[in-house]
Each structure stands twice: as C-alpha cells, then as structure tokens.
Amino acid sequence: MSTNIEEVVTPDRDDAVAAVAKASMLGKKKRQRKSWIQTSSRLGAVVVFLILWSVAAGTLVDTFYLPEPTAVAEEIWDWILDGSLWTNIMATMVPAAQGFLIGGISALVLGYLFAMSKTVSMVLEPFVAAAYGIPVVALVPLLILWLGIGRSLAVGVSAIVVFFLIFYNVYFGIKDVKQEFIDQVRIAGASQWDLVMRVRLPSALVWVVASLKLAVPHALVGVVVAEFLTGSEGLGYMLSSNAAQFNAAGTFASVVVLAAISFALDRIVFMISRRALMWKETAER
Asked: Where, by residue number, does the polypeptide cross the bilayer (predicted)?
C-alpha cells in the first residue's frame, strides 16, 4: 500500500516542482523583457531629444542661446583632454561628500534625540523649524563670515541642506513606532539595544531611505550653489564662469556634466536603498 502511495505522490510532487520552476522562469523572462523595454524607451527618448535639439539649434533658436549638441560634446571632450573636467568634478564631489556626512550624521543623532526625549523636542523643535524656514542662500553671507570663502563654505552649505532633509525623516520615522508594539517587544525580553536595532532604526530606515533620494543630490546642489556664488574651482564655478563669458556651449556642457553626475548618484542611492530595505526585513524577523 505504501509503495502505491509513493508512486502516486512522487509524480505530483515532481509536477509541482516543475510548475514552480516554469513560473519562476516565466517571471524572470517577463522582468527581463520589461527591463529591456524600459531601457530602450529611455534611450529612444534621449535620441529624440538630441534630434529635436539639433534641429532647433541654429534654425529655430540662435546658437548664441542654444548651442548645437556637437558643440557641447566638443567642449566636454576638450575638458577631458586638458584634465580640467576631472579636477573640477573632484573639487565639487569631495566637499559634497563631506557635507553629506556632516549633515547626515548630525541629522541622525539629533533626530533620534528629539524623538526619544519629549523635553528636548519641546524646547528645541521650534528653533529647528524656524531655521528650516530660512532659505539657504540667505545664510551664505553669514556662513562666509564664519567659514570664509572656499571649500569650508561649500561643505557648510551642503551640510545644512542635507541636515534638514534627513532630520525630520529620522524624527518622524522613530516616532512612527507604536508604543504598544514597543511594550510587546519589551515583554518578550528585548533589551534596549534590541529595541534600537530591531524596532526603532528599522522603522526609521524607510523614512531615511526616502530622504536619501533628495539628500544625496541636494548635497551636490549645496556645493554648486556655493561655488556659483564665491568659488574659484568646481562645477559650479565652471557653470558661472562660462555663463559670464557668454559661452553657451560651455554653460550647457557644465549642466550636462551635472546631470550625468546626478543620474549616477541616483542609481547609487537606488542600490543602497534596496540593500537597506533588505536589512530592515531581516532585522524585523
């Protein structure tokens, strides 16, 4: 009897495994097809944009205002050959990274303290809200007085921009944890460290990851603004100097380089976000 049962069950099990494998393969092919369509559509959009740009430049719009794509490409190529492109990229990216770290770490620490201490939040939150309402450009003269002109100014502007973008996300992310859930975890014997690593931080992580989408490119924007106003090197300086010389090709080339860097940063943030959310799921188990 048992032999007959095995003979009946085994084929069913094999069929089930085959069905799962087939479904997995079909799902993989579907994702690949979707990715290919998405990539092709984006490349097609870029090609159409370049064609329209080429047609408009010199015919519909004077090249003084809208240079041809080839002129912009030649400008970028010249910068690559003389080494100025890499030098200015590093002059911008280093203070952007420093500003991001300073602003991000400060936001994480203060956001956690504000969320955990009602007294700190009650006393200081109005001042943070008031500072958040001040345009960063309005703070530049004060930052020049404190930090001087140069890399320190760029780092300061970048740090301020990043701080406010991350601070409130950390604050609300930690506050979003329901007290009932915390009580249940404590009853289960969790330590304070477990509460932080398995409850509070994973809860805030979704909010922080969402803020990175804005904070990372805005760290770059903060540096570019500082360079545009007072810099003597960097991508912001390249942009302002070419605009001051009425060099449309150089101005557009600076914008294209900034756009390319922003796109690369966005892809990096996307990959980091996926890893972070995977850690969140693991920590919550």
From this structure: 43-65, 85-115, 127-147, 153-174, 204-226, 246-265
The pLDDT of residue 23 is 59
Tokens of 214: 């804005």
CA dist 89 → 154, 223, 255 (Å): 14, 11, 12
pTM here? 0.79
Cα–Cα dist 204/55, whole Å = 49
Residues 121 and 2 in one domain: no
Same domain membership, residue 129 and residue 9? no
Q: Tell me whether residue 183 is in a domain.
A: yes
Task: List CB contacts of 115: < 8 A, sequence separation 6 or more.
Answer: 121, 170, 171, 173, 174, 175
What 8-state DSSP symbol labels residue 196?
I
* Angle at the Cα of 247 from the Cα atoms of 241 and 249, rounded to 5 degrees: 115
Express each pLDDT in 49-92 by its tens digit: 989 999 999 888 898 899 999 999 999 999 999 999 999 999 99
Q: Which H or E run includes 94?
A: helix 84-116
Q: 186 burial class (0-12, 13-18, 19+ CB within 10 angstroms)?
A: middle
